[in-house]
Amino acid sequence: MALELVRVGRYRARLASSKKDVSAAQALRYQCFNLSNEGKLDIDDFDMICQHVLIENLETEKLVCCYRILSFENGKNISRSYSSQFYDLKVIESYPEPMIEVGRFCIDPENNDQSVVLTAWSALAKIVDQNQTGLLFGCSSFEGIEKEKYLDSFALLRDRYVAPYHLRPKIKAAQVFCYSKDLIFTVDKKKALSNMPPLLKTYLSMGAWVSDHAVVDFNMKTLHLFTGMEISKIPKRRKQFLLDLV
Fold first, then answer.
1. Contact by Cβ (8 Å): 86, 140
2. Are strands 11-15 and 51-57 parallel, antiparallel or unpaired?
3. What is the pLDDT of residues 137-168, one digit of tens each?
4. What is the distance between the alpha carbons of residues 226 and 141, in angstroms, rounded to a whole number?
5. 120, 244 contact by CB (below 8 A)
6. Burial zone of 129 (CB within 10 Å; 0-12 exposed, 13-18 middle, 19+ buried)
7. Helix (H), strand (E) at residue 13
8. Quick check: 36 and 79 in contact, CB under 8 A?
9. Which of 1, 140, 145, 205 is deepest in the core (most CB within 10 A)?
10. Which CATH class name applies to 3-244?
């Protein structure tokens, strides 16, 4: 039986409860991430150990958004996370509170209803509250691997949003862009925000921070940043608004 998390208008968020549900999420991810393989699915080993959140249109019964989560009691086993493949996360191993890694967040490109995003965040807020989560983390991606078109965005991140030193991931991946050191660039804020991935902008608006370098991911054809958000730092009004929808 499907475990419903929240309803917002005509949308419902629930946890996947079958292989068919997971396959539907993998198919949507394949479409959104512009991948190419015979199975037309985005699959990796983490799908087997994650919970998958599905956002469906109740009127059409169509899957319009999905993401997956991986829970940790504390930072001790963070090396088992998806993000740890790309970032040295030893500084977070001593984090004492429950954590959740959020990944593969995607929305049907044909859907531009803001209620979809609201439903997705409301479901995550409920999960975070139920698990008394202290830290959300994951990888936020810029489409493509050409950093030049995102220099304003990286300059803004450099100036305002780099992680505090005691939580700042170190370099692990072979190909990285150390924008906090290598980028000498005066930011155009308007251009920076217009080129910023929507999901990352949402995280930043709630107090998130990012790694001081971007990883060049040739497999996913993205530039991505480790992104962390301490729940205690989320503005109270924003957090309460999401919880009130539950």
1. no
2. antiparallel
3. 999 999 999 999 999 999 999 999 999 999 99
4. 9
5. no
6. middle
7. strand 11-15
8. no
9. 140
10. alpha beta
